[in-house]
C-alpha cells in the first residue's frame, strides 16, 4: 500500500461488502455496489491496474433458519440467492472482475489457512464462555438465534450486535434476558469452550492504522471510540452446523463465525480472478501478501466500499487479522450512508421498497439510477430516494444538461459535415476546460468522492451548453464556415471527453455515445488520455441518450407503491408475522423504524467556518417571474440583489402562483456556479425548504443585497 496519488504502479483491489444470501435486492442495497463499480471504473480510467471483486455471504444463522423453513439445505438456499445476485448486478452495469461466494472451495481453503496462521502465530486461544441454551428445545443457540437487551445501552439487541441502539458488536453471553428466536423460549447461559482471536493485542497497531486510513471520515472516526473504550477479544467460533469448520483439532464441531470467512472472501475472489486471467495479467499475491512483490513488499492498494453498519468489522477485526497474518492492510474504507425511501426507512415486511428487479421491469435504464445513487449527496451521507426526486435529477441534469448538450452538438455536426469537423487543434479555451475536468476527476478519485466524479462531467456539459450558445455556430455556417467548423470541432471534443469521463457512472450510455462519435474500440478500454485527443471518427446520426420522465409516470409509480404498502400492512393487522431479514454482510439500507419521519436524515459531513464564509448568501426580492418554454416546472425569475438584478431559474412553477411571486423576498445563494437550463442561464440559487418548495424569507426588514451570516 502507498499513499501516493492514484494512479500508482501497484495493483489495486476494490471490494464491496458481501450481500447476504437471504433475500431480494432493492435500490438501498445497490448504493454501495454502484459506488464500488463507479470507483473501480474511475481508477481504471486513470490507468490504475485494478481488480473489482466481491461475492455472496453464504453462512450465518438467518440462512440456516430460513432454509429450514423452506425445507431445503442451507447450501441450496444460499446458492439460489447467490445465483440471483450474480445475474442482477450486471443488469445495473455493476461488472465485478470476479464474483464468488464464501462457501466455495477457494474461500474455504483460504479461510482455514489464514485461521491456522493466526493460531500458529499465537493469536488464538481457548476460553470457557457462557453460551445461550434453549433448555426446552435442548440446543445451544448461536448469536442470531438469540435476542435480548444490550448490556451497554439497554436497547433491544441481537446476539452479536446492538442493531437498534449503540451499534456495538456483542460477544456470546453478553446479551441480557436472552430469548430463543426459534422457539420464543427464555434461554439460559451454559459454559462452552470457544476460540478467541486476541484483538486486544492490536490496539496500538489499529490506532496507527486509523491514522493512515483513507476514505470517508466516518470509517476513521467511528472505530476510535471502541479502541479508546478498550478492545475486547473476539470469539471466532459458533455452535452450529452451517459454516466453515474450524481447522485442525475441533472436538466440539465448531464452525467459524460468519464475520471471519466473509472478509476473507475478498482475498479468495481476487485469487480466483488472478487464476482465471493469469498472474501476468493480475497478480493477487502482489496485492494481498506482504513480501510477495520485491518492488512493493507492503502490498497493493486495497479499497473497501461498504455500508456504514459494518465499519467495525472492516476497521477493527479485519485489519487486525491481516496484520497478524502478514497480509497488506487496506489503504481506504469508503463507508456509505443509508438510503431512505421518501424520508422513511425501507421496510421489506411491508413491501415498502423499490426492488432492483422492479426498477428494471418498469422499463427504466440502469444508468440514470447509477447517476442518482452516485451523485445524490456525499458517499457517507444518508440519501433519500423518491420517484419525484429521481424524476427531477434525471430531467434537469441528465436530460436538460448532459443530454441536451450532446444531442444538439452532435446533431448539428452530423447535419452540416460529412464527418467530425477536424480543425488543426482544439481551441485553447476548450482544451483548458477539458484539462480542468480531467483534473476534477483525478481529484475526485483521490478524495474517494463518487459524487464529485459526476459533478465534474455535468459541469463540463454546462460549459459545453454555454459555449455553443455563446458562439452560435448555426449563424456562422454561411457567414464564416471555417469558424463554424472550429466551434463544432470544439463541441465534439467536449462530447468525446464526456464519453470518457462519464463512463464510470453511465457506462452503457457512454458506450452508445462512443459509437455515435465514430470512435474505434470501446470506451470501457480507454483512459483519460483519450479525452485529450480530440474527435477523430465519422459521426453517426445521434439519438438522445436520456429519456424524460413524465409526471404522470411518477404518479402511477407512487400509487403502485402505496397500494403495495397498504396491502402488506393489512396483512400485518390480520396477524401475519413480519418477514424482514436484512441481516448480514452489507445491510446498507435503513430498514423498519417505528420512529421514522418524513424528514431527510442529517448529514454526517461537517464543514468548517471558513467553508461557510465562502458561501455568499444574500436577501433578494423577486421582480419578475415567468415560465420557460418547454419546461414544466421551471420559472425564469428576475431577482434584485441590491448591487445588481440577476436571472435565476427555479423549479417553482407547479408549487407557487406565478403572479404572486413578484415582490416576494427570498434567500439566494449568490455565488452558485452559473448553469444553463432549457436555454436560460441561471445566475444563483433561490433557497427553499421541502418538497413543496417553501421559500425562505426574512422576518424583519432586511433589504435586497443584505448578506446572511
From TrEMBL:
GO terms for biological process: methionyl-tRNA aminoacylation. Coiled coil: none annotated. Residues 611-709 form the TRNA-binding domain. The keyword ATP-binding applies. The keyword Protein biosynthesis applies. Zn(2+) binds at residues 150, 153, 162, 166. PANTHER family: METHIONINE--TRNA LIGASE, METHIONINE--TRNA LIGASE, CYTOPLASMIC. Belongs to the class-I aminoacyl-tRNA synthetase family. MetG type 1 subfamily. Homodimer. This is Methionine--tRNA ligase. It comes from Halorubrum rutilum.
Amino acid at each position: 500500500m502507498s499513499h501516493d496519488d492514484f494512479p500508482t504502479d501497484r495493483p489495486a483491489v476494490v471490494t464491496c461488502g458481501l450481500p447476504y444470501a437471504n433475500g431480494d435486492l432493492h435500490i438501498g442495497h445497490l448504493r454501495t455496489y454502484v459506488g464500488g463499480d463507479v470507483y473501480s471504473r474511475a481508477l481504471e480510467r486513470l490507468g490504475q491496474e485494478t481488480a473489482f471483486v466481491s461475492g455472496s455471504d453464504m453462512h450465518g444463522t438467518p440462512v440456516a433458519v430460513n432454509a429450514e423453513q423452506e425445507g431445503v439445505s442451507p447450501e441450496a438456499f444460499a446458492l439460489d440467492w447467490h445465483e440471483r445476485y450474480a445475474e442482477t448486478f450486471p443488469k445495473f452495469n455493476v461488472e465485478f472482475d470476479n464474483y464468488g461466494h464464501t462457501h466455495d472451495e477457494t474461500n474455504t481453503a483460504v479461510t482455514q489457512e489464514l485461521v491456522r496462521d493466526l493460531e500458529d502465530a499465537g493469536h488464538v486461544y481457548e476460553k470457557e464462555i457462557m453460551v445461550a441454551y434453549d433448555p426446552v428445545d435442548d440446543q445451544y443457540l448461536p448469536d442470531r438465534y438469540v435476542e435480548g437487551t444490550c448490556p451497554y445501552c439497554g436497547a433491544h439487541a441481537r446476539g452479536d450486535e446492538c442493531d437498534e441502539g449503540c451499534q456495538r458488536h456483542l460477544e456470546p453471553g453478553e446479551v441480557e434476558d436472552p430469548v430463543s428466536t426459534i422457539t420464543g423460549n427464555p434461554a439460559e447461559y451454559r459454559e462452552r469452550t470457544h476460540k478467541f482471536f486476541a484483538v486486544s493485542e492490536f490496539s496500538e497497531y489499529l490506532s496507527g492504522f486509523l491514522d493512515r486510513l483513507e476514505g470517508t471520515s466516518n470509517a476513521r472516526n467511528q472505530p476510535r471510540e471502541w479502541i479508546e473504550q478498550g478492545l475486547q477479544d473476539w470469539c471466532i467460533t459458533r455452535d452450529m452446523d452451517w459454516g466453515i469448520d474450524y481447522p485442525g483439532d475441533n472436538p466440539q464441531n465448531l464452525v467459524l463465525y460468519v464475520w471471519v470467512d466473509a472478509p476473507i472472501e475478498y482475498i479468495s475472489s481476487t485469487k480466483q480472478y488472478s487464476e482465471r486471467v493469469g498472474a501476468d495479467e493480475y497478480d493477487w499475491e502482489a496485492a494481498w501478501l506482504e513480501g510477495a512483490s520485491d518492488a512493493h513488499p507492503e502490498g497493493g492498494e486495497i479499497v473497501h466500499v461498504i455500508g456504514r453498519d459494518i465499519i467495525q468489522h472492516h476497521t477493527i477485526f479485519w485489519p487486525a487479522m491481516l496484520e497478524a497474518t502478514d497480509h497488506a492492510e487496506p489503504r481506504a474504507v469508503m463507508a456509505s450512508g443509508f438510503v431512505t425511501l421518501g424520508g422513511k426507512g425501507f421496510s421489506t415486511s411491508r413491501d415498502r421498497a423499490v426492488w432492483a428487479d422492479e426498477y428494471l421491469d418498469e422499463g427504466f435504464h440502469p444508468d440514470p439510477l447509477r447517476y442518482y445513487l452516485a451523485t445524490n449527496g456525499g458517499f457517507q451521507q444518508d440519501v433519500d430516494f423518491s420517484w419525484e426526486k429521481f424524476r427531477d435529477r434525471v430531467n434537469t441534469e441528465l436530460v436538460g444538461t448532459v443530454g441536451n448538450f450532446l444531442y444538439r452538438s452532435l446533431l448539428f455536426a452530423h447535419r452540416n459535415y460529412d464527418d467530425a469537423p477536424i480543425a488543426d487543434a482544439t481551441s485553447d479555451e476548450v482544451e483548458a476546460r477539458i484539462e480542468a475536468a480531467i483534473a476534477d476527476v483525478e481529484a475526485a478519485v483521490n478524495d474517494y468522492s463518487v459524487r464529485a466524479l459526476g459533478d465534474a462531467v455535468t459541469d463540463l456539459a454546462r460549459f459545453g451548453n454555454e459555449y455553443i450558445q455563446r458562439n452560435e455556430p448555426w449563424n456562422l455556417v454561411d457567414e464564416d464556415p471555417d469558424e463554424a467548423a472550429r466551434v463544432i470541432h470544439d463541441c465534439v471534443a467536449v462530447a468525446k471527453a464526456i464519453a470518457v469521463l462519464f463512463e464510470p457512472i453511465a457506462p452503457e450510455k457512454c458506450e452508445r455515445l462512443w459509437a455515435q462519435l465514430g470512435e474505434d474500440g470501446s470506451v470501457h478500454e480507454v483512459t483519460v488520455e483519450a479525452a485529450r485527443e480530440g474527435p477523430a471518427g465519422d459521426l453517426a446520426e445521434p439519438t438522445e441518450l436520456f429519456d424524460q420522465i413524465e409526471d404522470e409516470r411518477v404518479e402511477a409509480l407512487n400509487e403502485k407503491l402505496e397500494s403495495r404498502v397498504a396491502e402488506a400492512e393489512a396483512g400485518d393487522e390480520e396477524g401475519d408475522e413480519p418477514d424482514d431479514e436484512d441481516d448480514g454482510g452489507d445491510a446498507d439500507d435503513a430498514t423498519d423504524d417505528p420512529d421514522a419521519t418524513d424528514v431527510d436524515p442529517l448529514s454526517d459531513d461537517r464543514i468548517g467556518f471558513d467553508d461557510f464564509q465562502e458561501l455568499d448568501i444574500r436577501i433578494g426580492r423577486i421582480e419578475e417571474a415567468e415560465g420557460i418554454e418547454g419546461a414544466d416546472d421551471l420559472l425564469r425569475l428576475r431577482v434584485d440583489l441590491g448591487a445588481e438584478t440577476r436571472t435565476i431559474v427555479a423549479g417553482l412553477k407547479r408549487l407557487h402562483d406565478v403572479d404572486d411571486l413578484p415582490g416576494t423576498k427570498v434567500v439566494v445563494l449568490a455565488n452558485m456556479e452559473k448553469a444553463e437550463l432549457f436555454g436560460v442561464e441561471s445566475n444563483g440559487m433561490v433557497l427553499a425548504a421541502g418538497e413543496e418548495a417553501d421559500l425562505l424569507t426574512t422576518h424583519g426588514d432586511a433589504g435586497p443585497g443584505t448578506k446572511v451570516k
